[in-house]
Write a structure and sequence with these properties.
One of its GO terms (cellular component) is plasma membrane. It is found in: Cell membrane. The protein is mainly alpha-helical. It has two domains: 45-182, Ammonium transporter fold; 210-314, no CATH class. The chain has helices at residues 2-29, 35-40, 46-60, 67-80, 82-101, 106-110, 116-128, 139-160, 170-182, 210-222, 230-243, 245-264, 269-274, 279-290, 297-310.
């Protein structure tokens, strides 16, 4: 009887170990680039393939290449604002479909490289618009601007490739600046907020709320997608963590350093509390410390230094 009991205990231990291994293997399949998803989607319907390409484009904004991370980010955007979530979805689909129609490189399309600029354009058009949510006229510049990003991406690639430089968000920056120049606060169809919000020139206080500064560091990750709510920002941070823990650590570090840099340069407290002082640093730290360079203590210090420099244009 004792021998039977011992055998049962060993069998249960092996079963638990096997179950733990299966769970761990399942989790590992959801991390990194998830190349197995591309193989699975190879012979599936175009609509399903487009969905995966679009989700990779969403994740590319945070330098990730994981469709599940993209799904989490899209869920966070809809959680924060269904209107912004709709604009982001429309932007990434418009730019990805444009790339397919004009025959861009299939590897770039499947990797989401033609989707993230369109998503950023659509999100920022929604943020800058003073017409409020569910203003359907805004869908016209969103679709047009997102599609134009593909043409700019293609044109800039042939130039920047000579110096081994990535196109990155150049198309997004160009399109959104042109859009704001062509419209204005008094435009009858596409009005946007003034460049200097009311109270911007008021005296900046000296008393800080430590809890709000800490909250602003977390919001700095969400502000990459123009998301200013805490829990959706944490979900976005979780999407980065799913793709790469190293990238997530640099995202938080970059936001913290950017916020501290803003504090040292007397940036308005509203920018510190809302995460607007941290998102550029977060992106810079991720790019230098977790993506474009081989990770080492030198590149880690360089990533921290780049966060401080990233705040200068904002001030």
């Amino acid at each position: 009887m004792w021998i039977d009991t011992k055998a049962d205990v060993e069998e249960n231990s092996r079963t638990r170990a096997s179950r733990s291994q299966r769970v761990m293997s399942g989790l590992l399949l959801c991390t990194g680039d998830m190349k197995h998803v591309d193989k699975y989607m190879h012979d599936k319907q175009f609509v399903l393939q487009l969905a995966v390409w679009g989700l990779r484009g969403v994740a590319r904004v945070i330098l990730a290449n994981n469709p599940l991370s993209g799904a989490l980010i899209l869920a966070a955007l809809f959680w924060d604002s269904p209107w912004q979530g709709l604009l982001g979805t429309l932007g990434v689909l418009a730019s990805t479909l444009t790339a397919v129609i004009i025959g861009q490189d299939s590897a770039e399309v499947e990797g989401g490289l033609h989707g993230f600029n369109g998503m950023l354009v659509s999100l920022l058009m929604g943020v800058f618009s003073s017409a409020g949510p569910w203003y359907w006229w805004l869908l016209l510049p969103v679709c047009f601007g997102s599609a134009m990003c593909v043409f700019l991406f293609s044109g800039l690639s042939s130039v920047l490739d000579r110096w081994d430089l990535p196109v990155s968000v150049f198309p997004f920056n160009t399109i959104i600046v042109l859009y704001l120049l062509c419209t204005g606060p008094d435009n009858p169809y596409f009005p946007h907020h003034p460049a200097a919000p009311p109270g911007m020139t008021d005296h900046n206080g000296t008393e800080l709320i430590a809890v709000e500064v800490t909250r602003g560091i977390l919001l700095g990750v969400g502000q990459i997608f123009a998301c200013g709510a805490l829990w959706p920002s944490l979900l976005i941070l979780g999407a980065v963590l799913l793709y790469s823990p190293l990238l997530a650590a640099h995202a938080l570090l970059g936001s913290a350093v950017g916020t501290m840099a803003g504090l040292s340069m007397a940036v308005r407290h509203e920018s510190l509390y809302s995460g607007l002082s941290g998102f550029n640093g977060s992106l810079g730290c991720m790019a230098v410390g977790g993506l474009f360079f081989t990770f080492s203590w030198r590149t880690h210090l360089f990533a921290i230094a780049s966060d401080w420099a990233a705040l200068s244009p904002d001030t």
